[in-house]
Design goal:
The complex is a heterodimer of chains A (about 375) and B (about 475). With about 375 residues, chain A is of the alpha/beta class. Helices cover about 50% and strands about 10% of the residues of chain A. Classes of the chains: A alpha/beta (about 375), B alpha/beta (about 475). Chains A and B meet through helix 5, helix 6 and helix 13 of A and helix 8, helix 9, helix 17 and helix 18 of B.
Chain lengths: ~375, ~475
């Protein structure tokens, strides 16, 4: 299959999750919505159900969610509520609601209350610990994941065995590995993988069934690996932020010859850096996997008097061969905003130029962003 | 508000003043001083005789002294977005060394440049405004204040000893919250919010100091689950170990027990004081509680705070007997004030309430600081119950409990730009208050520390609407 056709297939999945949801349901499958961040999707897969990521929408406007939420909340969380209210996700059999930021805390209550009022799906609450690594933190994660498992069992109607979870971990490790490989190859071959297509491929992973997606992605990776070395004339940058999946915005990068060398984006690489152990107690393996997550604005850093995250991102830029960083600052995202000054400090210290683009998912006009991106491309190509 | 200051209020003020004065003294003597989040288990620090100060209390004080905006802007200049909590911005600017200061008049030996926009109108002997040559009201020079500018203590410290250095140091705003020594360690408990975690991590980085963290995960049930208690209990042990390393002292169980006993007394006495708002009419203005909160925040574990609240109880008992109140107007309506007040705009908040005879007789801070417990596990459980870490059902139960007990006619809800976790489910709560209690609610937009996010006209309209709804309800009930 030509690369273009492969990308079209990923785009079809990325841009129309509702169609996939309908197909899963028509095939008699149960589907669980998974909100950001760090939910153990493996448990959904292990239950024989289909997990579908919910990271807002680029095509909806907030209307019904206003009944629950003031304006100063991130649009990812608000649009997730919107789609739970407006019928888009009525076919889901349940939804997992993590609470790792200050918006998701009260929103977990809004999701639960709203779904109960409308007699829609059950919501599955999840609170992660910020002490991830000490024994007591690991145990707390196991406890929380066990609650999630029990509630998933109530939905799927059968026990989720350790064997099921081990199987799921294998599937997910393979999935993450393929995604990491794709991110690397896309960075090496920007002439073949546009910013728009790169995003579509990664986004599709949230909606497609994992084995099918991984197989397709591995095939794509093989084709990309076989390409001759790239002779990229444009500039390369690293993206950072919570999410940057709007094709209209990403097209501006392609039009200005800006390639994405790699990313520090929550929706993309931040969640696929770490795998889970395939042997031993599988619940503990998932807890350890969460414990091993690092360098994330959402996570507490026990070495907090150092600037580990800022320096990690600066190194990522250097090692990827990029010459700058574009930060997609999700509006009203406290954790990202709180970490910005120290990210800036590390980037400045490493002499890495960057721009900060304020975005939200209701943005439709990217004129201002286009001007900033063009100017940044000019700066980097000098 | 009442002109005469009662013994209880004086005692409460002294307790907070002493917390800061003691910390300054300790710092000058080379002892360790720390900054702590308001709902960190202070009993742990008390067990090590540590001097601890409270950035939230500080930020509220700075905001109430009208320096919130300049400090918030200073944080924005450091790269912190203006969407971030105003307390956090003020505190981060302060941690970075920024200070609100009076503009020095360098042409004179001493003195400051007066801001002509400040001050109250000058009045003649008949109480009429005095006009200037342009026919505009003249300002009373005695009430005028200097321009406020931003100072940087690191810059000042780098200056050679001399008059310039002295004058610049003196120019820093003199009120107690602007004179908090820089921390040697920070104590953070995120039972309030996750922003707290990042806020304290930033301070730890700025000042290169250790951070002692207690993580309280958000709770979805009425009471904390046993696994949450176990997780947090283990962190208490962890924190004790870190404090031992920090201070080089062994954990003193006796001092800890003493602090716990005092913290329980303070909490019980605080709750008793809050309960005086159940009287109809109330013997105090509910706004008084906003001021007294400083004591439960900064001195919960101290005997003096518990004692001072007992004195305040006596004042209130006296008010009841004499039929008096600190409320400077007759109480016609009673409301719950939901949320943190807009500190920079307290007079503006009070004005339409006064005009309409509305007393605030319930505040969520009453149960929010009522940490009463009998043992370590109960103590952990108590610290899980901060307004922003409990489920909506628990939050509604708290509020409806005080609304019923304190006989409120309506609820005024502050949609606080600075506080996402607090404001995030208020719309649903408002519906429940009306459904369960049959009382009207009105919401307004504001901010606990950044005056730019408060719209006085909107607030007045909303209060007016609430008063009208309360009036109709009253008429229907009669």
């Amino acid at each position: 299959m030509s690369l273009e056709n492969t990308f079209k297939e990923f785009q079809a999945a990325a841009y129309n999750p509702k169609k996939l949801l309908d197909e899963y349901k028509a095939a008699g499958k149960k589907v669980i919505g998974v909100l950001p961040y760090y939910a153990p999707e493996e448990l959904v897969y292990a239950a024989g159900m289909v997990p579908m990521g919910i990271w807002g929408s680029n095509n909806k406007n907030i209307a019904l969610a206003k009944e629950y939420c003031a304006t100063f909340y991130c649009t990812i969380a608000q649009l997730a509520l919107e789609m739970l209210l407006d019928g888009t996700m009525d076919q889901l059999d349940g939804v997992i609601t993590p609470t790792i930021c200050d918006t998701l805390r009260p929103m977990s209550q809004n999701y639960r209350v709203a779904m109960a009022k409308l007699k829609k799906m059950p919501t599955i609450f999840l609170a992660h610990p910020q002490y991830r690594r000490p024994a007591f933190g690991l145990q707390f994660t196991v406890d929380q994941y066990t609650n999630v498992k029990k509630e998933l069992e109530a939905i799927c109607g059968h026990e989720i065995t350790d064997e099921d979870i081990r199987g799921a971990i294998k599937v997910y490790n393979k999935y993450r590995q393929a995604r990491r490989e794709f991110v690397k190859l896309a960075g090496e071959h920007p002439e073949a993988v546009s910013a728009v297509n790169r995003s579509a491929v990664l986004k599709a992973g949230y909606f497609m069934e994992k084995p099918e997606y991984t197989e397709k992605l591995e095939a794509l990776n093989k084709e990309l690996a076989a390409l001759p070395a790239s002779d990229w004339k444009g500039v390369k940058i690293v993206t950072s932020g919570i999410i940057c999946d709007n094709p209209v915005l990403l097209k501006i990068f392609d039009e200005n010859g800006i390639a994405i060398a790699t990313d520090d984006v929550a929706h993309e690489s931040r969640t696929i850096r770490v795998d889970a152990a395939e042997d031993g107690d599988p619940m503990m393996a998932l807890a350890k996997q969460f414990a091993d997550e690092d360098y994330d604005v959402l996570l507490y850093d026990e070495a907090s008097n150092q600037n580990r995250r800022g320096e990690f991102v600066a190194n990522l830029v250097k090692e990827s061969g990029a010459s700058g960083l574009v930060l997609f600052m999700q509006q009203f995202c406290d954790p990202e905003e709180m970490e910005y000054p120290y990210l800036k400090k590390a980037l400045d210290a490493a002499q890495i130029p960057h721009i900060k683009l304020g975005i939200d998912q209701q943005m439709r006009d990217f004129g201002q962003a286009a001007t900033a991106i063009q100017a940044f491309a000019d700066v980097l190509s000098v | 508000m009442a002109k005469e200051v009662s013994p209880g209020v004086l005692a409460l003020r002294k307790v907070v003043d002493d917390v800061y004065a003691d910390a300054r003294k300790a710092k000058a003597e080379g002892k360790l001083v720390g900054w702590s989040s308001s709902k960190f288990p202070c009993e742990l620090a008390e067990a090590f005789d540590l001097n601890v100060m409270y950035p939230e209390n500080q930020a509220a004080g700075i905001a109430a002294n009208r320096d919130g905006e300049i400090m918030c802007q200073a944080a924005e200049d450091l790269g912190f977005d203006n969407d971030i909590c105003g307390y956090a911005r003020i505190s981060l600017a302060y941690a970075a060394g920024k200070r609100a200061a009076r503009k020095i008049d360098w042409d004179k030996e001493d003195g400051y440049v007066i801001n002509p926009a400040t001050g109250k109108p000058l009045k003649d002997e008949n109480g009429n405004p005095v006009l200037d040559e342009n026919g505009k009201p003249k300002k009373d020079p005695k009430t005028q204040t200097p321009f406020i500018v931003l100072e940087d203590i690191h810059e000042i410290e780098a200056l050679p000893e001399g008059r310039e250095k002295e004058r610049r140091l003196e120019s820093i705003q003199p009120y107690r919250q602007m004179r908090m020594p820089q921390p040697d360690f920070v104590l953070c408990c995120n039972n309030i919010c996750n922003c707290m975690t990042k806020w304290y991590e930033n301070i730890a980085r700025m000042c290169n100091i250790p951070l002692i963290m207690i993580d309280v995960p958000y709770n979805n049930t009425m009471d904390p689950n046993p696994e949450n208690i176990k997780y947090i209990r283990a962190q208490f042990d962890n924190a004790i170990k870190q404090l031992e390393e920090l201070t080089g002292k062994k954990f003193d169980e006796k001092k800890f027990e003493h602090a716990c006993a005092q913290a329980n007394r303070t909490a019980s006495n605080w709750l008793k004081v809050c309960d005086y708002l159940q009287y109809k009419p109330a013997p105090m203005s509910g706004f008084d509680l906003f001021n007294h909160m400083a004591d439960v925040v900064t001195a919960r574990g101290k005997k003096e705070a518990a004692d001072a609240f007992e004195l305040l109880e006596q004042d209130l008992e006296k008010n009841i007997k004499e039929g008096t109140s600190t409320l400077p107007f007759p109480e016609q309506y009673r409301v719950m004030f939901e949320g943190i007040p807009c500190w920079p705009k307290l007079p503006n908040l009070f004005k339409p309430l006064k005009a309409n005879g509305v007393n605030v007789t319930a505040v969520v801070y009453a149960p929010a600081f009522g940490f009463v417990y009998n043992n370590m596990d109960e103590m952990v459980s108590a610290y899980c119950k901060a307004p922003n870490s409990v489920s909506i059902e628990k939050g509604v139960e708290w509020r409806e409990g005080i609304c019923r007990a304190n006989k409120v006619d309506g609820v005024l809800v502050h949609y606080n730009r600075s506080c996402k976790p607090w404001s995030g489910y208020m719309a649903e709560m408002q519906r429940r208050f009306t459904e369960d209690l049959g009382i009207p609610c009105a919401g307004f937009d504001g901010d606990q520390a950044d005056p730019r996010n408060f719209n006085e006209a909107q607030y007045e309209t909303r209060v007016q609407g609430l008063v009208e709804a309360m009036q109709i309800r009253k008429e229907n009930m009669e």
